[in-house]
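Entry 14. Structure prediction run on the chain below.
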Amino acid sequence: MTITRHAVELFVAHEILCIRSSLFNLLSYLPVLQKIDLDRLLDSPTNDLTKNTACGVALQVNMDGMDDLVKLLAIVKSHGLDGAFSDDSHYFGRLSDRENITFQSYQEPLRSMRCSLQEAKICMGALNNISAHLTKKIRCLQKRCKPFVLADGINRIPDEILANIFEAGHRIS
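Output returned:
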């Protein structure tokens, strides 16, 4: 099976749109993310937070890159998507407080660009992790809501109309 360049371009364009959409959705969670005690979570021996959901599924949230992602979301919130991700913006490379010795031997602007690329990949990993967990949470909540939505819908139908529905059903059978 041969993958054409056009198919790859379509896939990449789709992924970029998904990332922008995910960032818009995550901006609404920024106040919640800022309240998380990341130091406590990052100091845990496994560097993970394990949590049981209401659906009984154990979710393991890797906290690597979460600080960088929170800082990036704050930049996106204050400067907008276009301002934060324009070609001349250099917010990446300043998200992390960690000193990266890997790129010290490079000359500028390559050093900054490599740091920015690495931080972008770390943020993308954290964003993908959050997106996967939100997807699971949404599916779980949809399954749990379904019977209540159906019951509420039937309860909202007036008794006279329900009586007509049951009479029509009885006549058909």
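Residues 110-156 form the longest helix (47 residues).
Filed with the rest of this week's runs.
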